[in-house]
Amino acid sequence: MKKILALTLAVLLLCTPLLVSCQKGAKYTVGICQLVQHPALDSATKGFKDALTAILGDDVTFDEQNAANSVDTCSTIVSTFVTKKVDLIMANATPALQAAQNATTEIPILGTSITEYGVALGIENFSGTVGTNISGTSDLAPLDQQAQMLIDLVPSAKTVGLLYCASEPNSAYQVKKVSEYLTSKNITCKDYKFTDSNDVQLVAQRASSECDAIYAPTDNTVASCAESIWGAVSEKKTPIIAGESGICSGCGIATLSIDYYDLGYKTGEMAAKILKGESKVSEMPIEYTPAEKLTKLYNKEICEAVGINTAELEAKGYKAIEK
Asked: Which DSSP string corresponds to 71-135?
């Protein structure tokens, strides 16, 4: 009998770590590194958390951190996530994704609010699947359609300023594509790069005085300074076509934009599949917003300020931005 009891105890002791492991495996910690606080990124993070919570319930907890628009802080945040051995990292915006890429090759990483992954990760001839521990969602809207929107809404524009942050590679990618399109339509384009939020107003003011219209791409610094940009260009009443709805809400007349909440939600669904073992991150292609979900939006107050007829915009299928 003693031998049987001893054998039973030994089996239980051997199984206990497995049981604990299985119980622990059902609980997930997800680290969220968001570059900066502004409406687009905030919506993406909310969508991401809502999706994971809807699917995993109380089995997921979030370690949510904001880098206050600092690349160095992004690196510190994701390094902490790696030390804590989180189960997955969500990187919201390009600098956060680049920091995560540099921090780990093992923990699954999902990016969101990333315009072009090939540019962000330094991958030439990007095929759509990263193939490592990285995947995610893209906020890229059709740039040729945004450029055409500028032509349609500001037909008198002969010179267009391209306003963006010099430290954001995806912004440079967007303005390059928009510039190529506008140039093919015999419109002169000028770059107006700023270093950070400290000089954005001055650069925007200069662009306003030298150009007939401005294109502002999906750019995190532009988004965080959108109202200041409108303050800089409002005296000249220079119309701005924005890369996304958050920027348009602060300084633009119109945009062709995705829904950042939906983008984040899709990222959360991808995360759930990875955590549950249903999909491998290395095999997951980057997800894009379908064309039918893109929305033409206009900013009523700014359109009226620069003399654009909003009734005509609505007749063309534009919807007013809800503030």
From this structure: HHHHHHHHHHHHHHT-SEEEEESHHHHHHHHHH-SSS-EEEEEES-HHHHHT-TT--S---SSEE
Residues 71 and 107 placed together within one structural domain of the fold: yes
What is the C-alpha to C-alpha distance for residues 253 and 61, in angstroms, rounded to an integer? 39
Same domain for 47 and 58: yes
Residue pLDDT tens, the chain, 323 long = 444 444 444 444 444 443 333 344 569 999 999 999 999 999 999 999 999 999 999 999 999 999 999 999 999 999 999 999 999 999 999 999 999 999 999 999 999 999 999 999 999 999 999 999 999 999 999 999 999 999 999 999 999 999 999 989 999 999 999 999 999 999 999 999 999 999 999 999 999 999 999 999 999 999 999 999 999 999 999 999 999 999 999 999 999 989 999 999 999 999 999 999 999 999 999 999 998 889 999 999 999 999 999 999 999 999 999 86
Phi/psi of residue 218, nearest 5 degrees: -65, 105
Domain of 123, in residue numbers: 6-139+260-289
Residues 75 and 200 in one domain: no
| Domain-located, residue 1 | no
Rounded Cα distance, 290 and 278, in Å: 23
Domain count, the chain: 2
182 with 306, same domain: the answer is: yes
Q: DSSP class of residue 291?
A: G
* 208 and 273, same domain (yes or no): no
